[in-house]
Amino acid sequence: MQPTDFRLFIPSKDFAFSQTFYQALGFSKDPVNDQLCIFSRGECTFFLQNFYNKGLAENLMMQLIVDDINAAFEQIQSMGEVAPKYEPIKQELWGKVIYLWGPAGELWDITQLTG
């Protein structure tokens, strides 16, 4: 088996608001049906599902690697109330990171790797 892609299924507490959140973050939406959408930006894709489980959502963490952490932070700040919870850029051992919480409690680790 040779994998060609890996897609995560992200839960949503409010399916419509989650779609707005991910579009404001710069992802394009491609509806699959009334319960599922594919979001993409460049080569990165994931599914957003109209399904919510608190334990799953609040323990889900994804890392999104970017080439410009400052541009990512500006994008998040421009989201206004759509992105109510995030932390400023932090320096970690592996690079610079922004922690951004999605509408269902999912955590995005947006990282510009060092080196």
From TrEMBL:
Q: What SUPFAM superfamilies has UniProt attached to this entry?
A: Glyoxalase/Bleomycin resistance protein/Dihydroxybiphenyl dioxygenase (SSF54593)
InterPro entries tied to this protein = Glyas_Bleomycin-R_OHBP_Dase
Q: What is this protein called?
A: Lactoylglutathione lyase
